[in-house]
Amino acid sequence: MVFRQLDHMRRYRQVLNRLGHHGFGFILDQMGLSRFKTQKKADYYRFSVPERIRMVLEELGATFVKLGQLLSLRPDLIPASFIKELEKLQDEVPPFPPQQVRMVLESAGLDIASLFSEFDFEPIASASIGQVHRAVLMNGHEVAVKVQRPEVSEQVAIDLDILEELARVAEKRTKWGQLYQLDEVVQEFSRAIRAEIDFAQEGRNAMRFYELFLDNPEILIPKVVWELTSERVLVMDYLAGIKISEIESLEASGADLNKIAQNIVDSLFSQVYEEGYFHSDPHPGNMAVAPGNKLIYYDFGQVGQIDEMLKQQGMDLVLAMVRYDVNGVTRALLDLGVARKSVDREELRKDISRLQRKYYGIPMSQIKMGEALTELIQLSLKFQIRIPPELSQMVKMLMTVEGVIINLDPQLSLIKVAEPLGRKILKERQSPQKMLRMARDMVLEYVSLARSIPREADTVLSLLQEGELKVKIENSNMKSNLNRAEVLVNRISITIIIASLIIGTSLMSARMPSGFLSKIPLAEAGFFLAVALGLFLVYSIIRRGRF
To answer: Fewest CB atoms within 10 Å of the CB: 65, 266, 398, 415?
Structure first.
């Protein structure tokens, strides 16, 4: 416990030092952490703010690189220039040695000699969280073994504790921390990073995709070998293929690039609109092509999920965009998000109209669906409309997929495919069966609400009877009103004191008896004190501009 606390303190100081070193000391000032500031890097000003943020994350290692990668999937939180820079974050690090691989496997109860007839200690891929080895089981089955880096889970736990602590401080002490509800955002990212370092969870994600595409011969998902899988080791089928980005190799193998691109699009819409569960990081390194134009998906650490309501709202937004329906897009965007303040609907509508004019006259096949949706979500930042993170994740996934398919088939357009699909979904939504199901769900919801009313009413009446019912009344201008009232009361008090001094000194000067006290100029002293207080009162009124 003591050593963990020391590690925590050392790492805390290191994180804040890196921020100060790259010119972010002003953030520490705002958070009340100036004592941790270090001297700025001499040439820090040569780099843009997004570049310096990327540098900080890279220097701080695995947890912060993952944080940056997750942030790059969230156009609802950060501007496009920051996303572009964070996409450059590299997760490739030197592999750890065979003795450490053996140690991690043994700690998971796996003995290489008794379980594998072959085990290649030269990794296929190496990243900050773990690395992948090719192996062959005793029964001759070829597998990929993903092994977690030693001590990475402990380091991630310390880093996430620090991030959560800093988020709480920022939200408590800064306006931007409160505006972005930073504590909640960091908690969300913490959950995602913790899930990503749990290889058993990644295995469960993979099996869900395996079952989704089990009857689709065009899509291959590696099957998990559960008896050898744990939180730190993931064993799956080894599926070899040509990387999706190696266009020349694909062409040389006789692959049909148009067919592969169509397979990607079909699998994408199956994930999103049939299952509501999608691979949120389908970059070229996570896709390959097997013989017969079959698409292979790898790495299921980052996945997204959207419910039925969000699917419907997302499709409403896409259909309104396709029809250039500005009012429809405005309504759909407001329905999707949660506004942090009162939104000027007319101003929002005008901005959406300006955005859509950019696409007038352009053939639909040339419009990038992911890019158009991202611009809309970026617009929501301006109006402080908080878009559901699942939708932002999906939109970023669409952008990534569009970048992949444009290299395979430049004529294939996601938005062109999405329109007929959207009409089909809209037709299904308005079908008698669907309407009946929605009506049934609504009735059940109202029945549940009706059942809860007596219980809630009983609770309120009990509180009222016991005198424990409290009503919170909040006035957004209360603080400023109280300050003004306090100033007014102070001035009235000073005025009364001045009047009292003037009257008192006048009476004293008229009735002062002879003797010792008569030799002390009390009346004159009281008079000058009254004048001084009067001048102070006049000065304070003039200084505040209140006459």
So the answer is: 266
**What per-residue confidence (pLDDT) applies to 94?**
85
Q: What is the pLDDT of residues 479-518, one digit of tens each?
A: 555 566 656 666 666 666 666 666 666 665 555 554 444 5
3-state secondary structure (DSSP) of residue 218: coil
Cα 451 to Cα 25, 315, 440, 470, 473: the distances in Å are: 55, 34, 17, 25, 29
> Do 244 and 295 belong together in one domain?
yes
Q: Cα separation of 270 and 276, whole Å?
A: 8
Main-chain dihedrals φ then ψ at residue 119, nearest 5 degrees: -150, 115
Pair 146, 109 in one domain: yes
Q: Domain boundary residue among 246, 276, 303?
A: 303
CATH number at residue 140: 1.10.510.10
**Dist CA 36 CA 30 (whole Å):** 12
Q: Are residues 9 and 83 in the same domain?
A: yes
Residue entry with tokens 């820090």:
44
What tokens were used for 310?
């969000």
pLDDT in tens, 387-406: 888 888 888 888 888 889 98
Is residue 85 located within the same domain as residue 13? yes
Token pair for residue 127? 């990243």
Catalytic amino acids? 281
What one-character-per-residue DSSP string does 160-174 give? HHHHHHHHHHHHHH-
Q: Mark whether 142 and 263 lie in a shared domain.
A: yes
Residues 268 and 212 placed together within one structural domain of the fold = yes
Domain holding 28, by residue range, is 2-90+157-190
Rounded distance between C-alpha atoms, residue 61 and residue 63, angstroms: 6
Domain count, the chain: 4
Work out the end-to-end distance of the chain between its first and last CA atoms, rounded to an integer number of angstroms.
Answer: 63
Given a cut of 70, whether residue 224 has pLDDT beyond it is yes
Which of these three, 398, 433, 468, is where a domain ends? 433
**pTM attached to this predicted model:** 0.72
